[in-house]
């Protein structure tokens, strides 16, 4: 079992943490990661329409009551 | 002032019943009057963990439906003066009780007891709603696993929606050697993810299985889990007790061992 997973460098506790962080955000706002990705793309599209931003560095932070946008 | 504490988790099998039994017993040992209520209708377990399964005459549903007085249904634990159990019904449906009835019952018990501890069933349906209805504070039990933490987060969200006065976290079944090699989330990792106040951490201990086999809570015993549960009880009473960690004891031993090996 260990040897099977050992090709992955990341420790499994770190993988669990990373997965949980994404999972809990989507659970808390009751929206799947795919939908969140779609929202992100749409927001980027709208922002590009009115101001010059680099969409590759665009970051969105989701919480229950607000969405923070960083670029 | 009496307090109603609900022990909940969302996910099943993380140690709610064991935690309820040990906290209830611990508080009784510390001189408090405690009643443990098993709210898992249809799947009662708290009675066997406490070793009181042969003493049941009436149960929670009998009390709610008025088939008996509260006093008749309470089982006094002879080993621990101050500890009583209100067992759940085994052959009834979980819908036989509603939140208003549970609240009324816990309010009535407040006159006689310092602590009313509700062992909540797994899930977020009727049983959960019943258990939470009359509670002043909640203890959420989780293990350092993705599924248990996800459910705990969901439960914490629901408890906040119910405007629960205080929410504390217990992390159960930690395994120091796995944490050390990076294969298990640490106490800090879990607290960081759930961002809720930690009231205790319990390391995986085979004595738990042995104590359940005997039907005897291990909170008074000189075992790692027993000490951890006793510390949680003291923290519930407001004492400031540092986190118990078997790692610390072990590391001193390892250090000594290292010195000897060098010599």
Strand percentage of chain A: 5-15%
Instruction: Specify the CATH architecture of chain B.
Output: 3-Layer(aba) Sandwich
CATH fold topology of chain B:
Rossmann fold
Structure class of chain A = mainly alpha
Report the C-alpha radius of gyration of chain A, rounded. Answer: 16 Å
> How many separate domains make up the residues of chain B?
1
Elements of chain A, N to C (H/E): HHHEE
Which strand order does the major sheet of chain A show?
Answer: 1-2
- Biggest sheet of chain B, strands in spatial order? 3-4-2-5-1-6-7-8
The stretches of 5 or more residues of chain B where confidence is low (pLDDT under 50) are none
How would you describe the overall organization of this protein?
The complex is a heterodimer of chains A (71) and B (263). Chain A contains three helices and two strands; from the N terminus they run H-H-H-E-E. Chain A is mainly α and 71 residues long. Chain A has a domain at 31-71. A two-stranded antiparallel ribbon of chain A has the order 1-2. The longest helix of chain A has 18 residues, at 33-50. Chain B has 263 residues and is an alpha/beta fold. Chain B has a single domain, classed as 3-Layer(aba) Sandwich (Rossmann fold). Chain B is built from twelve helices and eight strands. Chain B has helices spanning 16-29, 46-50, 60-65, 70-73, 99-109, 126-133, 146-161, 176-180, 187-194, 207-214, 224-236, 246-262, and strands at residues 3-8, 34-38, 75-76, 83-86, 115-119, 137-142, 166-174, 197-203. The model of chain B has no long low-confidence stretch (mean pLDDT 93). At the A-B interface, helix 2 of A face helix 7 of B.
């Amino acid at each position: 079992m260990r040897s099977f997973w050992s090709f992955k460098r990341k420790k499994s506790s770190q993988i669990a943490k990373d997965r949980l962080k994404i999972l809990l955000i989507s659970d808390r706002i009751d929206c799947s990661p795919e939908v969140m990705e779609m929202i992100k793309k749409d927001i980027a599209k709208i922002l590009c329409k009115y101001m010059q931003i680099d969409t590759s560095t665009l970051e969105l932070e989701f919480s229950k009551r607000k969405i923070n946008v960083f670029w | 002032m009496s307090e109603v504490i609900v022990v909940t988790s969302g996910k099943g099998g993380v140690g709610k019943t064991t935690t309820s039994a040990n906290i209830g017993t611990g508080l009784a040992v510390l001189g408090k009057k405690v009643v443990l209520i098993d709210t898992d209708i249809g799947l009662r377990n708290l009675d066997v963990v406490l070793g009181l399964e042969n003493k049941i005459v009436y149960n929670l549903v009998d009390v709610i439906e008025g088939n008996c007085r509260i006093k008749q249904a309470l089982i006094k634990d002879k080993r621990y003066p101050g500890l009583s159990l209100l067992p759940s019904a085994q052959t009834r449906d979980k819908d036989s009780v509603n939140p208003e009835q549970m609240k009324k019952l816990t309010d009535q018990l407040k006159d006689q007891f310092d602590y009313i501890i509700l062992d909540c069933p797994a899930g977020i349906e009727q049983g959960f709603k019943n258990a939470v209805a009359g509670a002043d504070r909640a203890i959420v039990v989780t293990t350092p696993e993705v599924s248990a933490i996800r459910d705990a987060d969901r439960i914490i969200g629901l408890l906040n929606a119910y405007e629960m006065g205080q929410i504390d976290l217990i992390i159960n079944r930690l395994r120091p050697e796995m944490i050390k090699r990076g294969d298990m989330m640490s106490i800090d990792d879990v607290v960081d993810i759930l961002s809720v106040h930690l009231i205790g951490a319990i390391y995986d201990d085979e004595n738990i299985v042995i104590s359940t086999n005997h039907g005897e809570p291990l909170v008074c015993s000189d075992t790692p889990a027993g000490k951890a549960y006793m510390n949680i009880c003291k923290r519930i009473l407001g004492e400031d007790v540092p986190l118990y960690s078997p790692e610390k004891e072990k590391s001193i031993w390892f250090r000594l061992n290292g010195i000897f090996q060098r010599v």
